[in-house]
Specification:
The protein is of the alpha+beta class. 20% of the residues lie in helices and 30% in strands. It contains 5 helices and 16 strands. Strands 1-7-6-5-4-3-2 form a 7-stranded antiparallel β-sheet. The chain has a 5-stranded antiparallel β-sheet with strand order 12-13-10-15-16, with no helix packed on it. Strands 8-9-14-11 form a 4-stranded antiparallel β-sheet, with helices on one face. A hairpin with a 2-residue loop joins β12 and β13.
């Protein structure tokens, strides 16, 4: 039996994701256009011809539906038949989407199954989050003093999903205001009275204490008698100690040079961004056992990580990976989902508990 699947964590509520996956109009924006089949009640045709891993259009019929958490459809694709399951599970920061497809009749070549799974993965990781950001953007009024609708910007993004944004090109007025406020706050802190205390001079060394016994004036000074020198009858030669060879400390192996890391935001979108951490090994031997920890703002989630193994525990995302060759580097790239349209960087980044450059 052939089975493929993928999953992704999204910072959006389950009902919003369910709407994007079951509304025919919205499904056509992030995956493929759909249309009802006139002579088949309850059946839909999905325009998948030309998508990676699909030979032709697919006709689907709903087998099970439990809103807003599960929908199961049977797919008819030529002579092949498969069962596609889409599950939406709420999480503390949004929801998790799982897609699994099992072949019931027919056979898929290995390459076809791999390309089809990649098609699902790219749609879930790229187009679906952009559509969900657009739906969320319609509910947030970022221009409170203007009567113009707020859905214009995300529509442009949905229409141009395949074009990757130029690095660090997006400029936000809100971010500029926040940066100005932060600058003024730091300046005010620097001008506050007080500050670190100046170094104090070391306490003077107290003079030596005088003897508590006073000299007796009635005692006369006693002139010491010369001590007669006695010449021995036979002089014994003094023994000269043999020199002890000094021990040369053995050279202990030097500790390997610690790895370094630098962070950079390589692309942004309305409600998310893509970050990259490059781990550098300046030493002369391969560096293994390194750990990179990225701290995200509360409510953010990481996904689509390449270049390392990872896990997220609350706000901390921990990356571990293969040994970095001597003088080489290892790049880790990851997507971050966030409901904040302004913040496009993590709160912190460390490699082996040392700060990363770039933040």
């Amino acid at each position: 039996m052939i089975e493929i699947g993928t999953q992704i964590d999204l910072p959006h509520p389950a009902d919003r994701v369910w709407r994007a996956m079951t509304d025919p109009e919205l499904l056509g924006r992030w995956f493929a256009e759909t249309e009802p089949i006139p002579d088949g009640p309850g059946r839909w045709r999905v325009r998948t011809a030309g998508l990676p891993g699909f030979e032709t259009d697919v006709e689907v019929e709903v087998v099970d539906r439990r809103e807003p958490e599960l929908i199961v459809v049977r797919c008819h694709e030529g002579a092949d038949r498969s069962l596609l399951t889409c599950a939406v599970t709420p999480t503390t920061v949004g929801c998790r989407v799982l897609i699994r497809e099992t072949v019931e009749h027919g056979d898929w070549p290995a390459e076809r199954g791999t390309r089809r799974e990649e098609c699902y993965r790219q749609s879930l990781a790229g187009r679906l989050p952009a559509l969900l950001d657009w739906l969320a953007f319609q509910q947030v009024d970022l221009r409170r003093d203007s009567a113009a609708p707020t859905a214009v910007l995300p529509v442009a993004l949905i229409a141009d999903l395949d074009r990757r944004p130029t690095r660090r090109r997006t400029t936000w007025v809100v971010a500029g205001s926040g940066a100005a406020a932060l600058t003024l706050g730091l300046a005010g802190w620097a001008l506050l009275p007080g500050g670190p205390p100046a170094e104090t001079a070391a306490d003077p060394v107290p003079p030596p204490a005088r003897s508590a016994v006073a000299p007796d004036p009635t005692r006369s000074a006693v002139t010491p008698r010369p001590t007669p020198t006695t010449t021995p009858s036979s002089a014994r030669p003094s023994r000269t100690p043999s020199p002890t060879p000094s021990r040369t400390p053995s050279a202990s192996p030097s500790a390997p040079d610690p790895v370094g890391a630098r962070y950079e935001t390589v692309s942004t979108r309305v409600f998310g961004y893509t970050g990259e951490v490059v781990v550098d090994n300046p030493g002369g031997t391969p560096a293994s056992g390194w750990t990179v920890v990225v701290t995200l703002p509360r409510g953010n989630s990481a996904a689509e990580v390449t270049g390392a193994d990872w896990r997220q525990d609350g706000q901390s995302v921990t990356f571990t990976g293969p040994a970095v060759p001597a003088g080489g580097a290892q790049a880790i790239r990851f997507d971050v989902r966030t409901a904040d349209p302004v913040t496009k960087t993590p709160q912190g980044c460390t490699v082996d508990e040392r700060p990363c450059a770039g933040l």
